[in-house]
Amino acid sequence: MTRLSSLLFALCTLLLLAGCASTPPYVYHYVPGKTATLVNGVAIAPATAPPAVLAAIDAGNRIAGLPYTYGGGHASDADTATGFDCSGTASYVLRATGRLQGSMPSEGFRRYGQSGPGRWISVYARKGHVFLVIAGLRFDTGWTRGDRGPQWTTASRPADHCVIRHPAGL
User: Fold this and answer.
1) Which CATH number covers residue 42?
2) CA gap 18, 13 in Å, rounded
């Protein structure tokens, strides 16, 4: 982690602890043995990842690069989807872990699972948008360095007005 991103993360954490409504941004940092790697847009899971995380990464890899489609991805079969929106992306990946039945809109993820960041998977949700952090990599449909649509990235992004949740046990 760069010194600037470390300071930014520390400042945001202090503000959060002080009772301010700000959510710390997602800031990528590599942790050996815990962080997935990114190779040509494909996430490679760390060897120590549990099966549910492997399933999440595999699901993300199947849909990475598809276009953004409003309302897309809420069906259970990615093979028939022409594109995904943010909540369709999150729903699809979390269904693969066995920790979500069906799908939900982005705001519904504000109450998903358990409160706070997870050890392996974190869900950042606010009204109108949701993104995932899986084994340290962000899986998102926006704030990336390319076209909109589901994709893996190490790019930092703000998380204003988000709540952070995680699937139980992950």
Assistant:
1) 3.90.1720.10
2) 9
